[in-house]
Automatic annotation (TrEMBL):
UniProt keyword Lyase, yes or no: yes
Name by which UniProt lists this protein: Delta-aminolevulinic acid dehydratase
Annotated InterPro entries: ALAD, ALAD_AS, Aldolase_TIM
Species lineage: Bacteria, Pseudomonadati, Pseudomonadota, Alphaproteobacteria, Rhodobacterales
Catalytic activity: 2 5-aminolevulinate = porphobilinogen + 2 H2O + H(+)
Length: 331
């Protein structure tokens, strides 16, 4: 493309930055509250709001309290909330049966939130790590994370969440073939309108540390997740995974983590034109919060800038622990 610009001084780029009014007219991308999905953590009990030390400002909610939090989010105009359970240790087993218990924390929270605020979309996490004794997303036998056996369990977990009323299913496990299996099971069970937001390009990342604390999986985790999550050095592979997952029936796809992977968001959106979401993960949130608490950066400005950059990269939406703070800033 030819450079459509005149030589200086006919072209002065600073003209278009001269005032807030001119800058507003010139702005190409913006964050709206409709872009935000708010991830929240669940815990057993009543009236509980338990701080997560590695995520300042984030708490684990008991079911009664997450309903209040969900109402507040809906009142702010946030379209969706995403649930992650801290499963009690005595309910974590080798067979992960709690994952598809209709009365597990997630399923009780889905029903309570949908009863209180039917218009708020509820997203869930599909993976075995909150239920597993070893912190892995799938069944482990002799040190190997089994693929096909895990997919069968993920399908059961998916159906129990759809049955409870989940709007969006979010498989974060990175097993092969799970999207097709889940989509087939949802169709057979009559859940035609349940969306699948596939964690398609999910990288093996150091930025998940605080999340693993929040769901109580960090102490348990044996080794790493590199046999199923992606290598941070890869980019073409992300496009193959997105293509594969959409082909198997994913409605939307996710890139995760977010800020260090904006190039991936951009390639997915521009080369494949699929609805693209990014997950600004726990470690990204913790970095911004920690620096702000130390007075090293302006927390609100860094939050707003980080979220705007996802839009510039082409994302249609962002999962972020900042969702309520950002929604209040936009209000
Ligand atoms: C696991 C899962 C993880 C996150 C969401 N689902 C962690 C992992 O893969 O170990 C991370 C989210 C975050 O860091 O905010 N199924």
């Amino acid at each position: 493309m030819p450079a459509l610009t005149a030589p200086y001084p006919a072209a002065r780029f600073r003209r278009a930055r001269k005032s807030p009014a001119i800058r507003a007219l010139m702005q190409e991308n913006a964050v709206t509250v409709g872009d935000l999905i708010w991830p929240v953590f669940l815990t057993e009990g009543d009236g509980v709001e338990e701080p997560v030390p590695s995520m300042p400002g984030v708490v684990r909610y008991s079911v009664d309290r997450v309903v209040e939090a969900a109402k507040a989010a809906a009142d702010l105009g946030i379209p969706a909330i995403c649930l992650f359970p801290y499963t009690p240790l005595d309910k974590r087993t080798r067979d992960c049966a709690e994952a598809w218990n209709p009365e597990n924390l997630t399923n009780r929270a889905i029903r309570a939130i949908k009863a209180a605020r039917p218009e708020l979309a509820v997203m869930t996490d599909v993976a075995l790590d909150p239920y597993n004794i070893d912190g892995h997303d799938g069944f482990v036998v002799d040190g190997e994370v089994l693929n096909d056996e895990t997919v069968e369990a993920l399908v059961r977990q998916t159906l129990s969440q759809a049955e409870a009323g989940a709007d969006i299913i979010g498989p974060s496990d990175m097993m092969d073939g799970r999207i097709g299996a889940m989509r087939g099971a949802l169709e057979s069970a009559g859940h035609h309108n349940v969306l699948i937001l596939s964690y398609a390009a999910k990288y093996a990342s150091a930025f998940y540390g605080p999340f693993r604390d929040a769901v109580g999986a960090s102490g348990a985790l044996q080794g790493d997740k590199k046999t199923y999550q992606m290598n941070a050095g890869n980019s073409d592979e992300a496009l193959r995974l997105v293509t594969r997952d959409v082909g198997e029936g994913a409605d939307w796809v996710m890139v995760k983590p977010g800020m260090p992977y904006l190039d991936i968001c951009s390639r997915v959106k521009r080369e494949l034109q699929v609805p693209t979401f990014a997950y600004q993960v726990s470690g990204e949130y913790a970095m911004i919060r920690a620096a702000a608490q130390n007075g090293w950066i302006d927390g609100d400005k860094a939050m707003a800038e980080s979220l705007l950059c996802f839009k510039r990269a082409g994302c249609d939406g962002i999962l972020t622990y900042f969702a309520p703070d950002m929604a209040r800033l936009l209000a």
